[in-house]
Amino acid sequence: MNEDELRADIVKYGALLYGRGLAHGSAGNLSVRLDDGTILVTPTNSSLGFLTAEQISKVSIDGTHIAGDPPSKEAFFHLAVYEERPAAKAIVHLHSTHAVAVSCLCHADSFDVLPPLTAYQIMRIGRLPLVPYYRPGDRKLAEAVRGLAGEHKAMLLANHGPIVSGSSLQKAVHAYEELEETAKLFFLVGDRPLSRLTCEAIADLNATFPG
Ligand SMILES: [Zn+2]
């Protein structure tokens, strides 16, 4: 896809996520990596439901603003993910209700905060680690994300929300939606006895559907 097509994609998926109630107000941001290594990211204080292709920010991998409106204040952790995951071409970060609710719980195992419920959860999200809380704009958050990004396509920022990467914006959006639906299931099953996927089933999925 060329830059114009990717800008149109960001507008399309922003409206879709907003329309589905996964993004609200001016919360959340989307980004894609262009073939020249520069990044398109949604602008600061923009609503994902009402983007225009022209306003979308373009930044270098070191965060220098190149074109469009000023980038999201959260762009710096997108850049950390791109640096650590060479195959990542797109990132979705939203504050969707059920995933944020999981991020506000105390977790015994911060390396994996959702039980293995379904095959598509394993295939699209994998293990979901919790990134410690930092206030918005704190650059320590980018460093904490960087430390986990190499091993994980999805992470959950504590008391904040998920970051999900993919080899295309469509794939990152699908994975994000899978995560939100898994978080919904997690609350729906509640304290009932849980039939978790076995270690053998997870290993089989990871071997059959790598990446
Ligand atoms: Zn955020």
Automatic annotation (TrEMBL):
Its EC number is 4.1.1.104. SMART domains: Aldolase_II. Residues 8-187 form the Class II aldolase/adducin N-terminal domain. It comes from the Bacteria. GO terms for molecular function: aldehyde-lyase activity; metal ion binding. It holds the Pfam family Aldolase_II. It catalyses: 3-dehydro-4-O-phospho-D-erythronate + H(+) = dihydroxyacetone phosphate + CO2; 3-dehydro-4-O-phospho-L-erythronate + H(+) = dihydroxyacetone phosphate + CO2. Keywords: Carbohydrate metabolism, Lyase, Metal-binding, Zinc. Belongs to the aldolase class II family. AraD/FucA subfamily. This is 3-oxo-tetronate 4-phosphate decarboxylase.
